[in-house]
Design goal:
The chain is mainly α.
Length: 153
């Protein structure tokens, strides 16, 4: 019995690692925290696979580098925040499913296909993006503030 529990646990952990990794790869080109999900998936898979363990640190470094760059300037912060809020708004519209507009060139069934699941995913991605902006700001911008104050005095 103990052997079957460990096998089930291994399959569940490995399965979640693969899901996170694949979601991260998809989110590199779709809205969402791609590098963060990829890092999490590789971290989970690194317990089972040497190839994943070798890739965890480079992906982690790239994720932190990207996060730091995203909050280097106020236009980037404002732009990223507005993009995340726009993504959330699109998610709300997707959930509400308004009628297809007159200019829509294909069948109405292709207008906002996927229903509430797509809208909820868009909103979740927006919330994750806003969370990452706040995290990056607190970690990289606020960490720099005392150094800047010391260098100006």
């Amino acid at each position: 019995m103990a052997g079957s529990k460990s096998a089930v646990k291994r399959v569940a952990v490995e399965g979640s690692g693969w899901v996170l990794t694949l979601a991260g790869l998809a989110a590199l080109v779709l809205p969402g925290p791609g590098l963060l999900l990829l890092f999490a998936g590789l971290a989970v898979l690194s317990n089972q696979y040497d190839w994943a363990a070798r890739r965890v640190e480079p992906v982690k470094e790239k994720a932190f580098e990207t996060a730091e760059q995203s909050v280097q300037t106020w236009p980037r912060i404002v732009g990223s925040t507005l993009a995340a809020l726009l993504l959330a708004a699109v998610g709300v519209v997707w959930i509400l499913q308004p009628a297809a507009p007159g200019w829509w060139p294909v069948r109405d069934s292709w207008w906002l296909f996927g229903g509430w699941a797509v809208g909820a995913t868009l909103i979740l991605s927006a919330l994750l993006a806003l969370g990452m902006i706040v995290y990056s700001f607190r970690r990289f911008r606020q960490a720099e503030s005392p150094t800047r104050a010391d260098s100006t005095t």
